[in-house]
């Protein structure tokens, strides 16, 4: 017995595993699940509790489908999951599982294909293959030398700036200790200008 929408207690049939119970005109009936479902809570293919085909997968809306949509993959629980942001299509969760890189990514080949946002330092972008390519020894040497030189120049520039600041502050301190003031770009020792002025009168 079940209570219908009118508040009446009525007999309800026992549905099999591939049916769901629903009320119609105050009475309860068993209705078949969607053909993709094996067990369901309603008529739609998004109301499956199990998939009819064991090889089918669930989307995030519990819809049984033969394969996950492009941009997603099937996990160990037959659930469709979104690919890594670097991938446009994939077979797993990481950027090394990409079947196609996204438009913002490029392919790095180093024993395996991985989608990356930019090529690493030791590789160059190959226009012909639209991927990162290993550099030869000469190219690698140029890259290393340029990187080291740039780093050394940056350190030297920082040291030079620090030395200039240190010397300037030291000069200011010495002038202050000697009682020298800068007035209109001319250095005067405190008290000497007034003494000289009085002597000339």
Please give a structural write-up.
It is a single chain. By secondary structure, the protein is α+β, with helices and mostly antiparallel strands. The protein has a domain of 58 residues. Helices cover 24% and strands 29% of the residues. A hairpin with a 4-residue loop joins strand 13 and strand 14. The longest helix has 41 residues. It is elongated and about 110 Å long.
Find the count of extended strands (DSSP E, 2+ residues): 16
Mean pLDDT: 73
Query: Could you tell me how far the N terminus lies from the C terminus, measured between alpha carbons in angstroms?
Result: 126 Å
What fraction, in percent, of the residue positions are helical? 10-25%
Overall shape: it is elongated
State the low-pLDDT regions, or none. Answer: 190-200
Q: Tally the helices: what do you get?
A: 2
Radius of gyration: 40 Å
| Approximate strand percentage | 25-35%
Structural class: alpha+beta
Major sheet details: 4 strands, mixed
Output the strand order for the largest sheet: 12-11-14-13
Order of helices and strands: EEEEEEEEEEEEEEHEEH
Give the topology:
Elements: E1 2-3, E2 9-10, E3 19-24, E4 27-32, E5 57-58, E6 64-65, E7 72-74, E8 80-82, E9 87-90, E10 98-101, E11 106-109, E12 113-116, E13 123-126, E14 131-134, H1 137-177, E15 180-183, E16 186-189, H2 192-199
